[in-house]
Amino acid sequence: MISLEFRPDFINRIANSEGVREFIRPDGAAMDWAPLVSHSPAFTGTVLLSNGNDALAAFERTAPGVYQVHTLFADTCRGRLAIETGRAMLRWMFERGAQIVWGSTPRANRKACWFNRHLGARELPTSDATDIVFEIRRAGWAS
Prior knowledge:
It is a single chain. Helix content is 33%, strand content 28%. The chain is an alpha+beta fold. It has a single domain (3-137), classed as Gcn5-related N-acetyltransferase (GNAT) (Aminopeptidase, 3-Layer(aba) Sandwich), CATH 3.40.630.30. A 7-stranded mixed beta sheet has the order 1-2-3-4-5-7-6. Strand 4, helix 5 (79-95) and strand 5 form a beta-alpha-beta unit. It starts with a strand and ends in a 6-residue tail after the last strand.
């Protein structure tokens, strides 16, 4: 079940786990997300969702109804399970007013690009040789 996440210990466990941290912090430094969850999503503009076990997504509001997504899925949430979890998180956001979810993924991160495609993301023409900018629109999205 997907829900809002406010537990800093859970968030830090996922964000600092092997297979996640090196993609968020290439320098490998540990992160502390506690300051982000000390305020409400209405204040920070960031919605943190989790499956309560091994997956977290941060949706940052970039415009009304528009959110940039950052996924943090532990190694135990990959493949089909990751797709099901990602779809459930998108559904949660779209049911609560999100119109567009977008992100940027390094082309070299083939597994993340595969994940994006299986969620229904489409590459935007603003993509470059290094990164793919993608979007998923509520209108026409097949949950």
